[in-house]
Specification:
three-stranded antiparallel beta sheet; Rieske Iron-sulfur Protein; 9 strands; about 20% helix; alpha+beta
């Protein structure tokens, strides 16, 4: 990994932790950088049975918002198209579990899980049709959490460790 990539990774993690509740968030973020890992720990089970296609559910985990999006067929089709406007389309400089190192950045195509904090300054973007948009400085992410080049954020959204414990149960904070 070159120096620029290491520097960018550090900014991602610090930004993700900067706006989280409590002073321990920054320490946790720096610890993740030191281990080149993604967020783990304090497992939280979430039932996805009522989450319909196209809808976003937000839960709190470790003082941070975690998004659970059930992507529709239309959303998945949009993500399949090449997009030259993405800053890191292959997620090479991103924090995500190894099993999520794929174009959809997920364990299952239809379920997207991410820490819902903008990698610029830690604000909370909103689902805006076919993308997430940060209202503070207009950073924009696709529905796989990959950042567009147009805003100030330069890093993809952070994907926490998670696993499926059945068809509609997910556990955040535990490896797959």
């Amino acid at each position: 990994m070159d120096h620029a990539s290491k520097s960018q990774r550090r900014r991602i993690v610090i930004a993700a932790g900067a706006c989280a509740a409590g002073g321990g968030a920054l320490f946790l973020s720096q610890q993740h950088h030191a281990t080149r890992s993604w967020p783990h720990g304090s497992p939280l089970a979430v039932d996805l049975a009522s989450l319909v296609a196209g809808k976003l559910k937000t839960v709190e985990w470790q003082g941070k918002p975690v998004w659970l999006l059930r992507r529709s067929e239309h959303m998945l089709a949009a993500l399949a198209k090449p997009n030259n406007d993405l800053a890191d389309p292959d997620s090479k400089a991103s924090l995500q579990p190894d099993a999520c190192q794929n174009p959809l950045r997920s364990l299952r195509p239809e379920i997207f899980v991410a820490i819902g904090l903008c990698t610029h300054q830690g604000c909370t973007p909103a689902l805006n049709g076919d993308h997430f948009l940060c209202p503070c400085h207009t950073s924009k992410y696709d529905l796989a959490g990959r950042v567009f080049k147009v805003g100030p954020a330069q890093a993809n959204l952070v994907i926490p460790a998670y696993r499926f414990d059945g068809e509609n149960t997910i556990t955040i904070g535990a490896d797959a």
